[in-house]
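Fill-in record for non-specific serine/threonine protein kinase.
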Amino acid sequence: MAFLFACNKCLLFLVVLLHASAAIAAAALDNSTDLASLLAFKVASTSGGGAASDNIIAANWTTDAPFCTWVGVRCSRRRPRVVSLNLDSFSLQGTISPHLSNLSFLSSVDLHNNSLSGTIPDALGRLPRLATLRLSRNLLSGPIPPSIFNNMSSLVSIDLSYNNLSVSLPALVLLPRIEYISITDNWLTGHIPADLARCSTLLGIYLGGNKLTGRVPSSLGNLSKLVNLDLGENQLTRAIPTSIGNLTKLQYLCLSFNHLKGEIPMEMGNLVNLQELHLHDNGIVGSIPISLWNASKMTVLEVSINNLTGPVPATLGKSMPFLQWLLMAENALSGGLDFIASLANCRDLNYLGVMYNQFEGVLPDAYGNLSMNLHYFHVFDNHISKKIPARLENLSNLISLDLSSNELRGTIPRTLWRLNKLQVMYLGSNRLTGSISSDIGLMTNLATISIADNEFSGQIPDSVGNISMLQKLDLSVNKLSSTIPLSLWSLTGLLRLDLHQNRFEGLLPPQMAKLKAIGYIDLRSNRLSGNILSALGGLQSITYLDLSNNSFHGQIPQQLGRLFNVEYLNLSHNFLSGVIPKSFPNLSYVYSLDLSFNMLEGEIPEGKVFSNVSIISLMGNRALCGAPQLKFPPCPANMITTSTSSTKLRLLKYVLPSVASILVFLACFSLFINFFMRKKAKASSKEEPPCLNYHRQILYFELARATDSFSEDNLLGSGSIGKVYKGSLDGGLLIAVKVLNLQVEGASRSFDAECRTLGQVRHRNLVKIISTCSNLEFKALVLEFMPNLSLDKWLYSQNQCLTLLQRINIMLDVSLGLDYLHHQHPHVIVHCDLKPSNILLDENMVAHISDFGIAKLMLIDNKSTTSTNNVGIVGYMAPEYGLTGGVTIKGDVYSFGIMLLELVTRKKPVDTMFSEKLNLRQWVSNAYPTVVMEIVDNNILRTDFTNLQQHSDGVDVLRRCLSSIIDVGLHCTKDLPN
C-alpha cells in the first residue's frame, strides 16, 4: 500500500510538472507573439520619413530590454502580456500596423496627437478586451472599419476626432458597453445611424465638424444616460426632434451650423440639467419657448443667426442665474430690454450679445448693476433710444462696448471715458451730439474707437495722442472742425484713420509720415489745403488713400508712385496741377485710381494702371492728352511734358552754354582725381577687406590653423552660399568662421553687403562679427562662437530639454534683437529668414540672431520697399511674400509667431502631418483655447508640470501661461499683414 501510495504521488507530481511546463511554454509562445507585434508596429509607425531622433520608440524599443519596460508599453501584473499602449504625442509618422490585433490582452490604445497616416486596420476589430481606442489628431484617412462598431463588445471609449476619415458611418452599431464616441472634425457623410440608440450606456456623442446629412434621429431620445451631444457643423436638416426633451441628464447640446428648420421644441424645457445650448446659425423660427427658461443651470445660451421672433421674458436673469454667455444676435427678436436689467442677477455674466434684432426701449441706469465680470456688451443695430446711461462706468472690466446703429441721443457721458480697460468702443450711426471730451486720453488701452455718423462738433482734443495703443480711429461723418491735432500723428501704431466728411482745415503736417504701419487713410470731403506731402510716399503699408474733395493744390508728388501696396487712390476734386507723375504706372496693385476734376495737364502715362482706368477717372482736367482708348486728344509731337513756359525756354538759351562749360571742367577734374586714386589703390594691399577697417584683419593661414585646415570635424553647418566652421585662434579665442563659396553667383556681393551691415549693428542679441578675411580667392567672416549651438538642435534633441522659462527667455531675446533691427538701427533691417536654426545660444543660453546678411539682407529706407526672390523658407515665410514678393518687417513678425508656436508644440511648420488643408497655425488655432494642453510639447509637461504639481493651481497657471504665448503667436501669424 505504501508503495502504491508513493507511486500515485509520483504520478501526480509528473502530471503537475507536465501542466506547468505546458503553461510556461504557452506563456513563452504568447510573449513572443506580443514582442513580434510590437516590433511590427515600431517598423510601420516610424517609416514616415522623419528623422530617427523624432521617434522615441525607434531608440527605446529594442530587444536589449524586456518589452514590458519599453516606453509607452504597460503589461499585466499577473503575466508579461501587453495590456496598454500609450504613445500620445510621440511624433509617429508611419501607419498603424494590423499586427496590433495579435496583442490579445490589449485593453487600451492611445496614439493621440501623432502624424500617423493611412487607414485604420480592420484587424483592430478583433481585439476582444479593447476598452479604449484613441486615434485622434492624426492624418488617418479612408473609412472607419465596420468591425469596430459591431464586433467589439468590450469597447467603452472611441476617439477618432481630427483626422481625414471619410465615407459614412455603419448603419449597424452593436457596442453594449460604449460610453463615449468622438469622431469630430473629419469628412464623414451620410446619415447619423439610428442604431446609436441601442447603445444605452452612452454618455457622450461627438460627431461635429463633418458632412453628415439628414435629420437628427428621434431615436437618440432613448439614450437616457446621455450627458453630452455634439452634432454641430454638419448639414443636418428638418426640425429638432421633440424626443430630445427625454434626455433629462443632458448638460451640453450643440446643433449649431446646420440647416435645421422648425421651432425650438417645448419639450426642451425638460432639460433641467442643461448647462450649454448651442443652436446658432440655423434656420429656426418662432419664439423661444417659455419652458426653456426652466433650465436654471444654463451657463451658455447661443441662438444667434436664426429667424427667432417675439420678446424675451423680463425675468431671464432670475430664471438663469448662472449665465456666462448670452448670444441672441441676428434674429428678429423684439420687445423691450427689461430682460437685460434682470441679468444683474447673473454675477458671472461675461458676454452679452443681442445685436441685429428689433429690440426697443432705453438703456436705464440699472444696467450699471450688471456683472463686474462683464467683458463684452454688444447691443448694436436695434432701436434703442434716449441717452447712454452714466452708470455704465460701473462695468469697470468691460473690454468691448458696441452701441452703434441705434437711435441714441444726447452727449457721451464723461463717466464713460473712465472705462480704462476698454479696448473697443463703437458708438457710430446714432444721433449723439456735443464735443469729444479731453478725458478720452484716459482710455490708454483703447485699440479701436468709432463714433462715426453722428452730430459731434468742436475739435479733436490733443489728449488723443495719449492713447498709445490706438489702431483704428473713425470720426467720420460728423461736424468736427479746426485743424487735426499734431498729437494724432504721433500714434505710430495706427492702422486705420477715417476722418472723412467733417470740416477739418489746414495743412497736412510732415509728422503724418510717422504712421509707418497705416493701411487706410480717408480724409475726403473736408477743407484741407496746401500741397500733398511727398513724404506720404513713405507710407508703404497703405492700401487705401482718399484725399478727394478738399482744396489741395500744387503738383502730385512723384513719391506717391512708391506706394507699391496701394489698391485705392483718390485725389479727385482738388486744385492739383502739373502732369501725372511718371511713377504712377508702378502702382501695380491699384484697382481704383481717380484723378478727376483737377487742373492736370500733359500726357497720360502708359502702363497697367492707365490701361484699366475709365474716362470718368480723368475727366474734368483741362489739358490732358494721349490715351486714345479713352478718347483724349493726341499729344503734339513737340510737346514738353513738364509745366514749362516760353520764358523758361528763353532763359535756357542763355544759361545752357554756361552750364555746359562748367560740366566740361568738372568732367576733366573728375578724370584726373579718378586716375590719381586708381594709382594709389594699386599701391595698397590687394587683400584689404571691403569693410570693418577698424577690426584687425585675420590672415588666411591663421584661419586654416584655427580650423585644422577647415576640417569636416569642425564643420558646424552649411548652406546654399557657404559653410561655417568652428575654430580656435592662437590666443584661445573660440570663433565661428563663415566661408563663402565664391562659385555661387552673387556670393562676393553678398559678402560685401553683410560686411557693411554687420559692421554697423551692435546688440546683445545679435551675433557679433570679430573680423574678416578677404582676398581674390577667399572670403570669410569671423564671428563669435556660440557654444550651445542653435535653438533648432536644442528643441529637437533627445538628450537635452528646454524648460518653459528657457523658451520664454529665448523668444524675449529674439524679440529684442528684432526690435533693434526694425526700429532702433538707423536703417530698417529685415531678416527675411527667421527660424530656430538661425537662433544661436551662448554659454548662458542667451539667444543671438544670426545669418541676416548672406544673400538675405534687405535694407529698407524711408522711401522704398525692397523685393526679393529669397525670403526665407516655406513654413516660416509670410503669405504675402508669395503674392507680392514685397519685403517688410511684418514678414519677420510672421516668422517670429511661427517660432513661438513651434516652441510650444515642438512641431516644425514643415512637419509631414501638415498639408494644403492644414498648417501649423491652423492646427494650433483649432486647439486654442479649449484643448491647448493636448498640443503642447510633452517635454514641457514632463518638466514644468512636475515642478508645478506642488501648487494647488499649478496646472491652471501652466495652461494660462501657454495660452498667452499661443495667443501672441496666433496674432503674429495672421494672414493679413496689417
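KEY FINDING: The first strand starts at residue 73 and ends at 75.
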